[in-house]
Amino acid sequence: MATIAVEKVKEGGSKSPAFTDKIEKMCEQIRCRAHEIFQHREADGSAEEDWLKAERELFLNPASELIEKKGNYEINIAAAGFKPDEIKVSALPDSLVVSGESTHSHEKNENNVRFCEFGRKSFFRQFPLPEKINADKVTANLTDGILHVTAQKAASAEKTNEEKTNEEKTIKAAA
Length: 175
What we know:
The protein has about 180 residues and is of the alpha+beta class. The protein has a domain at about 1-10 and about 65-175: Immunoglobulin-like (Sandwich), CATH 2.60.40. Helix content is about 35%, strand content about 35%. It is built from three helices and nine strands. The strands form two sheets. The protein has a five-stranded antiparallel beta sheet with strand order 1-8-9-4-3. Strands 2-5-6-7 form a four-stranded mixed beta sheet, with no helix packed on it. Strand 3 (about 65-70) and strand 4 (about 70-80) form a beta hairpin. Helix 1 crosses helix 2 (about 45-60). The radius of gyration is 21 Å and the shape is globular.
């Protein structure tokens, strides 16, 4: 099991420049590829179809699931072939953003490689959550090609603090 660092964005806090730059870069890649598709399109189509086709060509859409249990949200994402340092997780108050980028290349005629279908692959997923989360209580790890992200609901964190306060009052009253 490899632990993945989680970038935490607080309520009312601004997103990091790296996060914003990453989104802008990805949108520009999609925009350029959609324009190429448009230029070479022979049949009728639409800009939206070109954009969606460009997204599918450029970015993986890994299988994932969102589970709600015991005051947490758990997200599992198929991330086979990605190393822990190639995956980024950002926790916002109302969503989790996960991205990964991996490259594979060979030097010319290295180890007699005749062909290689491995190359650059990347994914980007944003998971809007039904309830706010405590960004400080988000963890992520990669096990057997599955990225596991766990986020504590903000309401659960508040309840936990209330429970602690009540327990302290009970202990003081008993003493």
